[in-house]
Specification:
Pathway: tRNA modification; tRNA-queuosine biosynthesis. One of its GO terms (molecular function) is 4 iron, 4 sulfur cluster binding. It is found in: Cytoplasm. By secondary structure, the protein is α+β, with helices and mostly antiparallel strands. It has twelve helices and ten strands. The chain folds into two domains: 172 residues, no CATH class; 102 residues, no CATH class. It starts with a helix and ends in a 10-residue tail after the last helix.
């Protein structure tokens, strides 16, 4: 069994890289004992804001064997999204880099289905499910267990080789594989740049994020009006926020992605501040036709723009 597990793991990892994934690590499926009290406390303290779905399926979030019958392995995958170019106008309302191109859910799931088909063709009948950010899976915990990287103080997974500008996804299968050693070392050390740079103080302490204060949450997840108390703290972000990643020293190792689907709409990068302030619904639909930004809808994005446009141009650290 060991030889087969090693052989199968190499096959899977080689194919994952061929499909364009940046890293592939494998962990044994089981109960996430360390994460259980952390998740419980985070929810108890209401740090998830209005994301009520985080309260659902508590047990499934902690045990993948409840998501896939007879699950044996969690294959953790990363896909780079760091762009070559960024928005040209420094005064324009800002969009998180991950949303420049096509919706990552669609792009990654397509690759994962290809990987699952490959497994079935090359190894045999294997049951499995693909998860990309929209199901009860603690992706950062599994990435750490699979040796991808460590959890930074901003709660992102950080890789020594490539920083943190990448997506996480999991393929849970009922197949015994060779398991990677968990990433046991924290390489953040005494650095607190992410904590210090957060304009809303959303990083309460290392590894603990209060979503109620997070700019990404306020511009994407929050459905009601953004509280006026954040009026001078948004730093011109209209969708998401990259501040805690932009200041992370490990992201000096970030290299541009090679995924064609993540190439941004050229119009998006060239839009000036005044273009965003006067954006129409037709332009919104044209630019974000295949983008994750559609999640906010036109009404949500213009709410965010209206909230930040009162601020002086070029205000902010990033």
């Amino acid at each position: 069994m060991y030889n087969n597990a090693a052989k199968y793991s190499k096959l899977i990892k080689d194919e994952a890289l061929r499909l364009g994934f940046m890293q592939c690590g494998i962990a044994k499926a089981g109960f996430l004992e360390e994460e259980a009290p952390r998740l419980e406390n985070w929810l108890k303290n209401q740090h998830h804001g209005q994301m009520a779905y985080m309260e659902n399926h508590f047990d499934k979030r902690l045990d993948p064997r409840l998501l896939v019958e007879d699950a044996k392995s969690v294959i953790s995958l990363t896909l780079n999204y760091f762009p070559v170019e960024q928005q040209s106008d420094p005064n324009a309302p800002k969009i998180s880099k991950y949303a420049y191109g096509a919706d990552y859910h669609t792009v990654i799931k397509d690759k994962m289905f290809q990987l699952l088909n490959f497994i079935n063709e090359q190894i045999g009948a294997v049951s499995g499910r693909a998860f990309v950010d929209s199901a009860p899976v603690l992706d950062r915990a599994w990435a750490k267990r699979a040796g991808i990287g460590w959890v930074g103080k901003n709660s992102n997974i950080i890789s020594k080789k490539s920083g943190s500008f990448f997506f996480l996804a999991e393929l849970i299968v009922d197949l015994d594989l060779e398991y990677d050693a968990p990433f046991a070392t924290d390489h953040c050390g005494t650095c607190t740049k992410c904590i210090d740079a957060c304009p809303t103080d959303a990083i309460l302490s290392p590894f603990v994020i209060d979503a109620n204060k997070c700019i990404s949450y306020l511009t994407i997840e929050l459905r009601e009006e953004i509280p006026a108390t954040f009026g001078n703290q948004m730093e011109n972000w209209m969708f998401g926020c990259d501040i805690c990643q932009d200041v992370c020293p490990w992201n000096r190792f970030s290299a541009p992605h090679t995924e064609p689907a993540f190439e941004p709409n050229a119009q998006l990068l060239q839009m000036k501040r005044e273009d965003w302030l006067d954006i129409t619904e037709d332009v919104f639909k044209q630019i974000f036709k295949h983008s994750a930004v559609k999640r906010t809808k036109f009404k949500g994005l213009t709410r965010n723009i209206d909230f930040i446009k009162q601020l002086p141009a070029a205000e902010g650290k990033c």
